[in-house]
Amino acid sequence: MADTMVHVQQLIAARKYEQAAKALDAAISAHPDDPTGYTNFGNLLIAMGDSRRAVTFFKKALSLDETNGPASFGCGNALFELGRYQEASTCFTDAQQAGINDSDLFYMIGRCGLELGRSGQALTAFQRAVELNGADVEARFQYALMLAKLGDLSAAEKQFSAVIRADALHADAYYNLGVIAAFRDQAEKARQLFERALKLNPQHILASNALKTLDNKR
């Protein structure tokens, strides 16, 4: 089963969904009481954009093993895609309790916290995601946003700067650094940062509006 699942994951990564489905059908038929096949079929369905059906497969896996971390994590991902954030949050908590401790899980816990208006939970989760994987630029960006939202501008500035060091094309990080500079009345620095954001993304409405605001204050 393990070799089959590795092959399936390779097929999913290559977007060879039909071949992956056939391999999973065979694996489930051969091992109907093994939650692994159902879990991977759920992940395949998410990749195919069918999160609603994916939930059914994850729940089948959990009916066979209610402490199956990958199934809880997968179910949380599917529910999140469906906008069922509270249920997704519960699944992610179950995954954590089942022993999963990686940046992807905490990133999704943070995303749920954002959707549910739980700023403290989101901040803690994004921070943990960055601690576990410092190369996760999106988790670091979300962590920086939460720091800024909660008023810790110095810490937020450090994190946005780290985002740019990792991804020099991250227009939103430049924009948010511009916002911090503007808040500190550093108009010229803010202008340069907003202009950089617009150069990277000419459709960046927030940066465009921020520049207009600076111009109006002249």
TrEMBL record:
Keywords: Repeat, TPR repeat. PANTHER family: TPR REPEAT-CONTAINING PROTEIN PA4667, TPR-REPEAT-CONTAINING PROTEIN. SMART domains: TPR. Transmembrane segments: none annotated. It comes from Sporolactobacillus shoreicorticis. TPR repeats lie at residues 35-68, 103-136, 171-204. This is Tetratricopeptide repeat protein. The keyword Lyase does not apply. The keyword Repeat applies. The lineage of its organism: Bacteria, Bacillati, Bacillota, Bacilli, Bacillales. InterPro entries: CellSynth/LPSAsmb/PSIAsmb, TPR-like_helical_dom_sf, TPR_rpt. SUPFAM superfamilies: TPR-like.
